[in-house]
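ENTRY TYPE: paired fold submission
RECORD: A
CONTENT: sequence, then structure tokens
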Amino acid sequence: MTKTIRIRESQVAGAMVSLHGAAPFHRAPLILVHPDEIGYFKVQKYLKHVVKVDPFSQEDWDTLVLSGEITPLTPCKAELDMWIWVFRKNFAPDRKDIIAELDRKQQLHFPTWGDRDAIAVLVVETELDDLQSSFTTNLLNQCEQALVDRREDALALAQTAFCFGPSMTARGLALLAVAYDLDGNKVRADAYGKIAKNSKSQRFVDLYEQELNRIRALSCTTDIGPKNPELQLHIAELSRRWADKYFG
């Protein structure tokens, strides 16, 4: 049952994320504890002075830690709009760049966690909207140039921009589709195209088509191949998840 707790006395106990995974970047909610409350609380939404949370027990915590769904963290003070960002080793072109920029702007809320495979940092996202948007735009520009040059890092750049961006964009989806197509994976290329075309906004669909045609022309690729009927259910599920997340 969802409830609210005061943020001022709350502490970070963990995060609903595994440090190790395939995605180059992962944003995840924190798990909090509060001195006046029993159990653990997964952040659902930050409000003005409180946070809406989903409570769970010590037994649930132990089970989720054991399964790898929760990463325990060194306790520290929680703040409004604080989330965990996980940068994995396949973050392109180099996760050191964005971490250094966060550090330069004094937006790293220590401690940090991780190893050579993954680095996790606490950030207050309301302070980082401009940085996240500008860094994503830079990644998309680099990806587009890599596609024009037929460089091998084009797909990694497209994947990183898609994961790191504050929202799904027509340009980001089109770059992913073309990058996967050039990589020989038409199944994934079709899947991202289907996600765009199943969005609830016709304007988004039109923008996607425009971007897809423009990027294909720049990279001299052929049309994204026809849909494989055997994959329609899988693609439809991906489409539903992304449409629900970004278009409500």
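RECORD: B
CONTENT: sequence, then structure tokens
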Amino acid sequence: MDQLRASCRVPVEAAAGTQITTIEGLSRDSSHPLQTAWIDLNVPQCGYCQAGMLMAAAALLKDKPRPTDDDIDSSITNICGVARTLECERPFTKPPT
């Protein structure tokens, strides 16, 4: 199961014997670049989708370290209306210019 999955859609038995990385697994002290960017940009709104959004961004960057806008749009699909309106996924998935 080496791919991003919504935990609410994976039966426990399907995860048996697999490695699971959670938002806390990115770093123990919130020092992962995605976590620091999230904090620096003051991205969190209600918090409901935060873990899923961070993990989707991490999965995307693992596969494509320099994603295009189309890559971001097609890979990070669990973005709420507020986040999509603010385009908050772009700053932390695009390298600085």
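NOTES ON RECORD B: The mean pLDDT is 77. The first helix runs from residue 12 to 15.
STATUS: closed
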